[in-house]
Amino acid sequence: MTPQFEHSTAEWQALDSAHFLHPFTDHQALAAKGARIITRADNIYLRDSEGHQILDAMSGLWCVNVGYGQRDLIDAATRQLETLPFYNAFFQTATPPAIALAHKLSQISPPGFEHVFFTGSGSEGNDTVVRLVRRYWDLMGQPQRHTLISRFNAYHGSTMAGASLGGMSDMHAQGGLPIPGIVHIDQPYQVQHGLPGESRDDFGRRAASWLEAKILEVGADQVAAFIGEPVQGAGGVIIPPETYWPEIQRICDRYGILLLSDEVICGFGRTGHWFGCERFGFRPDLITFAKGITSGYIPLGGVLVGERIAKVLIEQGGEFSHGYTYSGHPVACAVALANLALIEREGLVQRVHNDTGPYLASCFAALQDHSLVGDAETCGLMGALRLVRRKASGATAAEAFAPEQSVGMLCRGHCFANGLIMRAVGDRMIIAPPLVMTRAQIDEMMGLIRRCLDLSWADLQQRGWV
Ligand code: PXG
Questions:
Q1: Quick one: average pLDDT of 375-402?
Q2: Which residues, including other chains, have CB under 8 Å from residue 82's CB and lie 6 or more apart?
């Protein structure tokens, strides 16, 4: 470690709680226990300040798609820092990495995407989306088309517009959100909203019909767009039925409403396709991206702008009064180019599609025999296990734990203590491991998952909760 980073764990923890306000954190609770200090990483493994090795089944925060320590990305950053560490794109200037990345994205995007607007993060990307959509309808002579429809339990970021688009009730409760002109429908989560005996496909169509009902409630001529994550990530890896997105597409087409895909998690191979909309068979007008574009090595986000909007914006829009200091940051764009080249060279998208994705699916299916697992599902290299108090049997549905028992957090604690990063969202345990993961590493991860489920089960038995 470089000298200025030489402290004991206790010293780091004291400095941390004295000065560092963490995102989404109860600081008093954290100070009482002390943060875990992560000091290094390689491939899919993290190391903490106590020397523990931890298998990172969350790719950092859904972002380290190519794994840690990739020399190509490090060298690309170093070269660009030496050549030109920064220049902006505001005043009729551009830098080679930003132009080259815009061109590259037009090649790997779904058909009809030739343009990109760069931001520093996914949240800024979704703020850009709101402004782009409203600007588009102004230019189309329909300024009353102002309302965006999103979903409860969606996550679209933490800025005012991002948190408003998102449907997290805890976030809306702080700071007077959502901002005006954003409304929500329920998510396509059958455990929560399914009817007894309803097939998965029927549920998918019914969940999509909530969009049509909301459009008619708001007034079809008032609605600008619908936004969704192909698979809801932070909401708990909610994988929609195959019937859901095609029906959403049909409804958007019917009312002329823009369709927006937030691919901050699903983009760049996570689902076994370059973009999640390709996996689920819909054609969005805008795609928000971040995270996997640089594998998280450096912040970068943006919006892929489909031709329906790009044509109007460019040919009729004049100046679009929007942008960030770091829109098209040359170092971030250089790292993104190296990252995309690596994904292509290693065939990671195909590998997830043909090999590791199906293998993970079979491993998760096998976990359904565990007493604690109500259901287990995957999409590409993301997956979720639902922890239940009693499994379904015959016509009797599985029995959930009481939310105040926080069984997900209990299980997460066992994972953390046993060298595995797995997240808990309510009673759903979720993973999104690096796309470089091999079959042998999936086996290793599954061994850890099973061990942590066993420890959780024993713990719950001891408490008399199962
Ligand atoms: N859209 C989606 C779909 C996301 O998952 C954002 C937008 C915002 O991106 P930025 O770069 O502004 O954070 C995200 C971010 C979690 C968690 O707990 C998920 C995210 C961020 C932080 C925590 O799963 N996703």
A1: 94
A2: none
Mutation choice for ligand 1 from 22, 59, 128, 155, CB with most ligand atoms inside 8 A: 155
Q: Are 284 and 296 in contact (CB under 8 A)?
A: no
Please tell me if the CB atom of residue 286 comes closer than 6 angstroms to any atom of ligand 1. no
Give residue 159 CA to ligand 1 midpoint distance, Å. Answer: 11
Name the pTM for this structure: 0.97
Q: Which domains does the chain have, with CATH numbers?
A: 36-66+347-463 (3.90.1150.10), 71-345 (3.40.640.10)
Q: How confident is the model at residue 2 (pLDDT cuts 50, 70, 90)?
A: low
Q: How would residue 5 be classed by pLDDT, with cut points 50, 70 and 90?
A: confident
d(CA 59, CA 295): 9
Q: Where are the alpha helices (DSSP H) in 65-197?
A: 71-83, 96-108, 122-139, 160-165, 169-172, 190-193
DSSP code string of 286-316: EEEE-GGGTTTSS--EEEEEEHHHHHHHHHH
Residue 61 CB less than 6 A away from ligand 1: yes
| Mean pLDDT taken over the chain | 97
Mutate to test the pocket of ligand 1, among 291, 382, 412, 421 (most ligand atoms within 8 A of CB): 291
Contact 252, 226 (CB under 8 A): yes
Q: Is the CB of 156 under 6 A from ligand 1?
A: yes
Report pLDDT for 394. Answer: 81
**Atom 24, ligand 1: residue with shortest CA distance:** 234
Query: Mind listing the pLDDT tens digit for each residue in 298-344?
Result: 999 999 999 999 999 999 999 999 999 999 999 999 999 999 999 99
| DSSP of 205-265 | HHHHHHHHHHHHHH-GGGEEEEEE-SSBTTTT-BPPPTTHHHHHHHHHHHHT-EEEEE-TT
Residue 296 CB less than 6 A away from ligand 1: no
Does residue 276's CB lie within 6 angstroms of at least one atom of ligand 1? no
Look at strands 182-185 and 147-151 and give their pairing: parallel
Answer whether residue 3 shows pLDDT above 70.
Answer: no
